[in-house]
Amino acid sequence: MSVVKANQTASDEIEMLQKMLELAKRRKENESKEDLSVSSGGKSDGSGYEGASFNVKTFNAIAPTGLEKFPQGKYKVAGDESDLPGPPMAIMLRSHKLQVNEVKPTVRAIVRCGAGTNNIPVKEMGERGIPVFNTPGANANAVKELVVCGLLLASRGILEGANHVKNVINVEEKGEHEKIATRIEKDKAKFGGTEIQGKTIGVIGLGAIGSRVVNAALGLGMNVVGYDPVLSVDAALALPGDRMVRVTDLNDLFKVSDYISIHVPYIKGVTHHLIDAKALQICKPNVCILNFARGEIVDGAALKAGYDSKMLTGKYISDFTDEALRDDPHLIVLPHLGASTEEAEDNSAAMAAETLMDFLETGTIRNSVNFPTTILAPHVNSSGARLTIVNKNVPGALGEITSFLGSKGVNILQQINTSRDPVAYTVIDLAEIPEDPSGLQEEMAKVCPDVVSSRFIGSVFNDTLGQPGAYFYVKWAQGELQGE
Ligand SMILES: NC(=O)c1ccc[n+]([C@@H]2O[C@H](COP(=O)([O-])OP(=O)(O)OC[C@H]3O[C@@H](n4cnc5c(N)ncnc54)[C@H](O)[C@@H]3O)[C@@H](O)[C@H]2O)c1
Ligand SMILES: O=C(O)[C@H](O)COP(=O)(O)O
């Protein structure tokens, strides 16, 4: 990767190289200091990349299709940290319940191969200046297909019938085929069902999965009622507006639904026990509930009470176990299989890898659940130095940063500043590489109280200094390292 623009003169090139050498020298001098530098090897493995590697720690098994997206040499990815040449800069995971203390001060990003991020301490990560990413829609088709299966498991005695046949075969003597066939033919009356065509399904949450379920249900001849008070414009466009009914009061959905399928994220205090005793009172007695979202969204104890009192007779098909319902015959539980198809695993891992590389190498934020979408195309005249800053979303914070940089003689070529809830994110392309980038960051953190973290990125820092994003300054981590 060249760090020199084609239109630069030879003297520009020499000057820039001198600066880089100077930076490299200073960096070496600072190596003995306890800071957040990531010394991650830097050996070529034959792929042509000579810089240090971006180190990614994985939890869970991630599909090889996704892992193969990371250029060899430039990235090192491992589940066991001791297999990485240096501390992790990013975490890639599926359903692992990530603990705050598993996130090292060197981590700059967390990416979830999948949709739900309730297994990640998202708020705490935002406070530390760490974006959390997911892969919207990447596994939605897989879940939709299992929901269709769930509808049939709910409407017919498929699983119960199949289990019965197995039991009969097990108790009868071998070679008694005629006897077995007669018995199971007679017993089939116990496993009859109803058709789903013409029935009404209530879909709660009309995003990537919900909208697909809506369309599939319509294709199966069902009537569809949908509920999603916070629907995005993009998601709304995926809905067949005139062929379904959308309600603004969830009770209206409960009243009319023969099947209810849940497709909302789990958010404590918002979707926790969205289906509770009160909701179940309103539902039809034979309602079947499909939960492929998260176990905690349905109050299992309330459902059990409804079954025990015979108020409810329909099935509960869930991708998640529930202690209160463990022995209940109305429950059909799967081992969280919604996204477990080759295609969904590949799609999710590939999208996760691309999202992560984009962030680590350019500062771009896409598909984050706690940071604002931020895309800044590189400036044509940039020296290759890009500074990204996470700061508190408070009045005056951006002014503090730009005034500070101005006072240091740093010329800003272009910048973008975005915000989302308490977090603001600023990406700045600089006209020149600062003489002492890490010193600048340290001073900025002191002078600008609202700066949470900053990171220099770009080819200059990756290739020349051999330490990708080495100049990463995080206040909380500095404090932690210094025992403050
Ligand atoms: N079983 C599995 O393997 C599996 C796989 C993927 C996703 N999921 C779960 O399904 C959820 C949905 O996934 P998705 O890909 O459709 O996500 P999505 O973000 O595309 O859709 C979620 C929808 O829920 C809506 N919503 C949010 N809060 C709501 C509320 N209180 N009431 C009604 N609607 C609300 C949003 O507006 C959005 O349209 C995930 O958060 C995850 O928990 C499970
Ligand atoms: O939220 C999700 O994407 C699903 O629950 C899938 O989880 P998994 O990747 O652990 O199968």
From TrEMBL:
Keywords: NAD, Oxidoreductase. The keyword Acetylation does not apply. Residues 25-36 have a biased composition (Basic and acidic residues). Residues 25-49 are annotated as: Disordered. Pathway: Amino-acid biosynthesis; L-serine biosynthesis; L-serine from 3-phospho-D-glycerate: step 1/3. It catalyses: (2R)-3-phosphoglycerate + NAD(+) = 3-phosphooxypyruvate + NADH + H(+). It holds the Pfam family 2-Hacid_dh. One of its GO terms (molecular function) is phosphoglycerate dehydrogenase activity. It comes from the Eukaryota. Residues 386-459 form the ACT domain. Its EC number is 1.1.1.95. Belongs to the D-isomer specific 2-hydroxyacid dehydrogenase family. This is phosphoglycerate dehydrogenase. It comes from Bathycoccus prasinos. The lineage of its organism: Eukaryota, Viridiplantae, Chlorophyta, Mamiellophyceae, Mamiellales.
